[in-house]
Design a protein that fits this description.
By secondary structure, the chain is mostly helical. Helix content is 78%, strand content 0%. It folds into two domains: 1-31; 38-173, no CATH class.
C-alpha cells in the first residue's frame, strides 16, 4: 500500500509524507527548466559572440555588432510565432505540452541551440541544413517528450513560422536603413 493509505501511519506522519511528496514534485518541476535555460544562455550567448565577429564588411549588410544586438529581437519574434505554432499543434493533435512558461523556455532553448548549430554547420551547405533539421526535430522530441512523427510535424509548423518571423523582422527594419 502507498504510505498515504497505509493504516499504520499516524495523521502527523501522513502530513509529513504529503509534504515530502509536494516538495519532491516542486524540485522535479524546477529541474525541468534547467536544461532549456542552459541551452538558451549558452547557445544564445555563443551565437551573439559569433555574430559580433562575423560579417562581410559590406555596409548594406546587417552584420557584426548590429546583427548581434538584433539577435534577441529575432529570437523573441521567432518565439512568438513558435508559441503560436505550438499552440496550434497542441490543439490539433498533441493534446498538451505542459505549462505555458515551461513550453516557452523549452522553445527558446531549442531555438538558441539550433541557431548555434545552423551557424556552425553553415559551411556544410545542404549537409548543414540536414544536421540543423535533425537536431531541431531531436531537441523537440527530447524536451517535449514527443514521438518521432509528432516532433517532425511540430518542427515543420514551427520552422515555417520561424521563417515568417524572419520576414516580419525584415519588413519592420526595411524602412529603418
Amino acid at each position: 500500500m502507498p504510505p498515504i493509505q497505509d493504516p499504520r501511519f499516524s495523521k502527523a506522519r501522513w502530513n509529513e509524507t504529503l509534504q515530502e511528496q509536494r516538495e519532491a514534485t516542486e524540485r522535479a518541476s524546477r529541474m525541468e527548466y534547467i536544461k532549456p535555460l542552459l541551452m538558451l544562455v549558452i547557445g544564445g550567448g555563443v551565437v551573439m559572440v559569433l555574430l559580433t565577429f562575423a560579417g562581410s564588411g559590406d555596409p548594406d549588410e546587417l552584420s557584426g555588432p548590429v546583427a548581434a544586438l538584433l539577435y534577441p529581437v529575432r529570437l523573441v519574434f521567432a518565439l512568438f510565432f513558435g508559441v503560436v505554432g505550438l499552440w496550434l499543434a497542441a490543439k490539433l493533435w498533441l493534446g498538451g505540452v505542459g505549462p505555458l512558461g515551461l513550453a516557452i523556455v523549452r522553445l527558446a532553448g531549442i531555438y538558441a541551440a539550433t541557431d548555434l548549430i545552423a551557424i556552425l554547420a553553415a559551411p556544410l551547405l545542404f549537409l548543414g541544413w540536414f544536421v540543423y533539421l535533425v537536431c531541431y526535430v531531436g531537441l523537440l522530441a527530447w524536451l517535449f517528450d514527443l514521438e518521432a512523427i509528432e516532433s517532425m510535424m511540430l518542427a515543420l509548423i514551427t520552422f515555417v513560422l520561424k521563417i515568417l518571423a524572419g520576414f516580419a523582422i525584415i519588413s519592420l527594419l526595411g524602412g529603418a536603413f
